[in-house]
Amino acid sequence: MQLFRLGLLVASFIASAGAQSTFTPARPPAAPLAVKSPYLSTWLNIGSDGGDGGYLAGEWPVFWENQITGWAGMIRVDGQTYTWMGLPGSTTVNQTAFEYTSTKSIYTMNIQDKVEMNITFMSPITPTDYKRQSLVFSYLNVEVSSLDGKGHNVQVYADISAEWVSGDRDTIAQWDYGTTGNVAYHKVYRQVQLEFSEINQQGEWGNWYWATDDNDDMTYQSGRDIVVRGQFASNGTLSNTVDTDFRAINDDWPVFGFSSDLGTVDSSPVSTLFSLGLTQEEAVQFEGASAYGPVKSLWTSYFNSELDALSFFHNDFEDSATISGAFDSQVAKDSLAVGGDDYLTLTSLSARQAIGATQLAGTQDKMYLFLKEISSDGNVNTVDVIFPAYPFFLYSNPELLKLVMRPLYENQEAGKYPNSWAMHDMGSSYPNATGHNDGNDEKMPLEECGNMVIMTLAYALKASDGNYLDAHYNLLKKWTTYLVDDALYPANQISTDDFAGALANQTNLALKGMIGIQAMSVIADLTGHSDDAANYSSIAHDYISKWQSLGVAKDANPPHATLSYGNDSSHGLLYNLYADAQLGLGLVPDSVYQMQSNFYPTVANKYGVPLDTRHTYTKLDWQCFTAAIASSDTRATFFKDLSLWVNETPTNRPLTDLYDTISGNYPGITFVARPVVGGTFAPLLVTSY
Ligand SMILES: *[C@@H]1O[C@H](CO)[C@@H](O)[C@H](O)[C@H]1NC(C)=O
Ligand SMILES: *[C@@H]1O[C@H](CO)[C@@H](O)[C@H](O)[C@H]1NC(C)=O
Ligand SMILES: *[C@@H]1O[C@H](CO)[C@@H](O)[C@H](O)[C@H]1NC(C)=O
Ligand SMILES: *[C@@H]1O[C@H](CO)[C@@H](O)[C@H](O)[C@H]1NC(C)=O
Ligand SMILES: *[C@@H]1O[C@H](CO)[C@@H](O)[C@H](O)[C@H]1NC(C)=O
Ligand SMILES: *[C@@H]1O[C@H](CO)[C@@H](O)[C@H](O)[C@H]1NC(C)=O
Ligand SMILES: *[C@@H]1O[C@H](CO)[C@@H](O)[C@H](O)[C@H]1NC(C)=O
């Protein structure tokens, strides 16, 4: 812990040279502000000013797709108005510090050395507590205290615009103001609901709630942006009126404000809490065992109404902060033990992004976790997007891995997928989990068969759930037959890294297939199929011994696995080796681990090791898989390069997993906010030596 503090101090000191604010543990390309689901996903991008960004005041928060989701904050101190969030117009406060943890982004602001603000955005992560995790809500807590020993007269203001309710700014919004118990709320929604539709990736249905404590110090107002904000700036209180001229989002920009009069503030912090979130009765449409149809959001199975859900959430701040704080601490403790500050920089930045692509649905008796392949194509529960994220699920709660595989199993076991291999995804366009009755999904057969078998065993071992293996044995066996046919000499095909193109005899893909076969041998053994167990194990061992000639450039200096069989001048990240270690299979000899670990540092660029010899770009997630199974020295080098990249990258939107190892920039493909960054958790499950 001592070392951790020292490390943070050094990082902060370096970051502060030439800037007003410190950034701890790093200045990320974008800070998660409210990131909880595919539709509650608002960030503060570092901005087009690249290296000089990261300031909460002076830039609008944006949805992950980059359109503004208006969110403004102002404060009056002794009658002077300042902006602390967004761009509503007044003088900005001075940001002195930014810090992130797994669940929080915290800004510290200074106003004329008179008053200090701590502004905390908390998107709770409660992986084993489904009631809390089911709520698509996030907190904003604003704490103010006096810095100069004098009392100051303070009012705090915050609003949202109607931009949250639709991706089309010409859409007519409607709204309402109300109270429930001790909670005051603005409810804002699309006047014409378009269930299960998206525009510019935003969800076009459900109700948005923006809430605070209903007390004597609170005033509210809805109306035109300059009117409402102007009223606060000139007066410090709002008019307690509702604008009933329902209109387009961009027609005199309606905003929904709250002001809290804190009176005279001295050195003890006074806080104002806001809650922001989305209620959708129905989350997705799903082709499961029964006919295609809607599946309810899971929160509906815990709460009788939206207002009950809102009220619970808003009043739950202290408990929720305790649970999220425990998650933060656990991730910090475990990450520091594995890879110090450099590694914690990666895991703590990735947690909200990974879980923030998911949505809990169904009922308490039959839950599903739906996942959106954000930014790359919007597929639902893509198997090779779940796979890189599987370490996050397994680490935080293995049952989440079961829940995210459940739709895939249910659909395929109902005979709704005609191919002999595992389906690529549950549907091309989230939130419509249509399945692929025609078998025309993106074809990644070896990749997905291997992924399903590996993840199934990973879940069952971690959760000690042998029944799960029994239940899915037949389908697993069918997929393994495919692996046996294709893994030794993989046909010309794409892997999960489809942007890199198709290739025959991919060394790393073959390895996934072989590890999948050995994983199936373990599954067979655990379920009492001893003949299958012996058969698969003997095939996997036969294959892996051949693979060591086919896929290794033995005479290279140093020797290394190739990108494809026989091409000794090629190489790549052999990230599929990870599952052999994580599942404890012992299929692949230690010498292969050693060889790769010695090799990577010889081909590292400034910001990491290229994905393969075809390009200089790389993947954040696969480097973490690879680092997990490298020697401690090589692992530390990976983490150092990756954390340097997070600090220096010119990418300026929610963390990309694909970037160039030399420039640190997007390599012509802009991936943002993808859940695959859950792969940064890979070394928390296993490290080799
Ligand atoms: C911010 O800091 C600058 C430089 O010290 C100072 O001139 C300015 O008044 C400060 N602004 C606020 C709002 O404190
Ligand atoms: C802000 O947080 C720091 C560190 O936890 C604390 O010392 C300070 O009192 C807080 N200030 C306010 C205004 O809450
Ligand atoms: C999902 O399906 C509905 C029809 O049931 C359609 O209106 C909607 O546009 C689809 N959503 C997406 C994102 O394609
Ligand atoms: C502020 O607004 C309130 C309510 O509209 C009004 O009574 C009061 O006079 C205003 N004060 C100032 C200083 O404008
Ligand atoms: C072993 O598995 C392969 C692939 O599924 C199958 O073709 C073969 O018949 C099996 N052999 C035995 C002895 O079960
Ligand atoms: C794969 O490698 C094997 C062994 O080197 C070779 O015989 C075969 O032609 C290769 N397949 C393709 C499609 O290139
Ligand atoms: C071998 O790999 C290198 C690097 O990816 C590539 O440039 C070359 O074309 C490959 N050679 C063959 C014969 O495929």
UniProtKB/TrEMBL annotation:
Which Gene Ontology BP terms does the record give? carbohydrate metabolic process
What protein is this chain from? Glutaminase GtaA
* UniProt KW DNA-binding keyword: no
Q: Does Lyase count among this protein's keywords?
A: no
Residues annotated as domain Glutaminase A N-terminal = 103-334
Which keywords does this Swiss-Prot/TrEMBL entry list?
Signal
What is the top-level taxon of the source organism? Answer: Eukaryota
Q: Where is the signal peptide?
A: 1-19
Q: Where's the Glutaminase A central domain?
A: 340-683
**A Pfam short name:** DUF5127
UniProt-listed InterPro entries: 6-hairpin_glycosidase_sf, Glutaminase_GtaA, GtaA_central, GtaA_N
